[in-house]
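Before surveying the methods themselves, we first show a specimen of the format, giving the amino acid sequence and backbone structure tokens:

:::
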Amino acid sequence: MPLSDSMNKAAYPIENSDFRAECKKTLSENGALVLPNFLNGETIQAIIQEGEAKKNLAWFTQSTHNVYLTHVDNNYDTEHARNKQVSSSKGCITDDQIDPTSPLRQLYDAPLFRAFLASVLDETALYNYADNLSSINLHYASEGQELGWHFDNSSFAITLLIQKPESGGVFEYIENMRDADAGEMNYSGVSEVLAGQKKVKKLAIEPGALVLFRGRNAIHRVTPTQGKITRMLAVLAYNSQPHIALSEAASKTFYGRVK
């Protein structure tokens, strides 16, 4: 499927330098960029059909972790922000399970789309993961499943909402909650977030929306899915350097296998 057949080119002239600059400015100022209806309805339905057909292949996980996605530090007690555990649960199919003809793969591989992303993210170029699992993932969140509060290790995330649940599944975040590069973890602020004492922002995301998000210093979560409709989210993962693969340990944690 050509790129022009899957996305809303009239609304989003991704080849245009002024449009790219506008998107880059929004991402820089807000830490998030949401492009509603980036995918057209026919494309969304095709991805939903693929997702439903392959849900039985998904690796489902339920785990607890701290918001920093690090091991427990015995210098702090278990209720300290450094160690306090939150829950995450989801299902996932991996890159090698996505059809060669899937609209997700056509979009991921399209040179124009990749050049647009690189420009907005201020990266010289973007590269596929070197392993065969990580580049494209389709996530499932059935009733009660959620993504707990956390910071990302990577500097950017690119997602497409494919199917919205009846309720719940809301993306919440607070930007500038730490400075990872400076080693400032803001334990007091994180404690307030975990206690529900901080006002959060919510991203209004409907199916077909493309979202670019900088989650390295923005704490964020997805609230539990409510109702019988599974939330489906596509994650398009790129690297700023070539030949990067997910570690075996991370691969086993996320996907239950290494290849």
Remarks:
- The CA atoms of residues 173 and 252 lie 27 Å apart.
